[in-house]
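FW: tagging you since you asked about this chain on Friday. Here's the raw sequence from the shared folder, copied in full. Didn't touch anything.
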Amino acid sequence: MSVILDLPYIYSIIISSVVAIIYTLLGGLYSVAYTDVIQLILIFISLWVCVPFMMTNPHSLDISLTAYNETFQAPWVGTVELDEAGKWFDDFMLLALGGLAYQAFYQRILSASSYTQAQVTCFASSAFCLVLGIPSVLIGAVAASTDWNSTAYGLPTPYDRKEAGSILPIALQYLTPTYISVVGIGAVAAAVMSSMDSALLSSASLFSSNIYKNILRKQASDREMQWVIRISVVVVGLAGTALTFLDNSVLVFWIVGVDMSYTIMFPQLVCVLFFKVSNGYGAIIGYTIGLVTRILSGEPLLGLPPIIKFPGCRLDDEGKLTQFFPFRTVIMLMSLLSILLFSWLASIIFNKGLVSDKWDVFDAKRKYKPAATAENIKVSPTSEGAPASKQLLDTTSC
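HL: got it, structure written out here
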């Protein structure tokens, strides 16, 4: 909005936030689900409508010619150097596994009407993500094949101006007709809104269910919980809006969020689901080790210098001290092993009577029941998944 509509950045953020907060506040999960359908259609159609106009504009060369040849800019197909392979591997694992610990993901899965529908949704969405990514790749290739000196944008190029993060709206504004750029910005707005409303609702649900209902007021009624969620949506929305003013790239906060999810929350999720020995003692120690180690490893996007320097730590092309070792994956594994090790130690200590049971605040000394199997689980075909979905819908609707 700030690029194409020439609105100040602050006004653009405020308008987007107010719209997302209001319809999430009024409709809850229903509004998020229905608006996501509309937004996905807008993203898919709008971006594909922009691609032909982008690729046939007179300022750009054929992207097949510029893929490996330097013309107006460097080739848009890059290479992976051997000394950067660790960083690429780390980023790949981050993108592949980081989102699995997001509450918004399970918010959608638990609202499915059946286990089968939840599974089909996951597999279908993974394939759909690839399809949605094609227009973005093509638009980026066209931007890298453009003689920006012949456009109203001029030189230096967006990459040299450090505006590569805004290349989509810049390309829409200067390489397509005005009415097409408006359609394209609708796709961008839809993508942002789709992510924001899910994050708002998931954060509010986490606070209301895990903290308010389970700790602060266990006797809270459904009506009270509805108001708690609404207030939480507003508070979280305002906090997120305030954070956005700290940096001109919302993507920075999104990347950092996925980073923390991968290094800290993903090990917790794996242990809870697949390792019966896990308990609260191991979870706290694993969480602490993961958090402290991740902070000490530094983050160039936030200007946080590394205290712990892994092998290959050096200055990048922008002069920032960067870890080229797959340190996030190492931290994730450290946290995972810490959870298992200290959970096992805590179980041994309390089960052997080395420490009095009155100190066992997390109930590590318990009788383990046989793991449930498909044969001894009976689920009604008409009600599977119903309790979780009903609770979420009831507490987030008006």
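FW: The first helix runs from residue 9 to 55.
HL: agreed, and Confidence is low (pLDDT under 50) at residues 367-398.
FW: great, closing this out.
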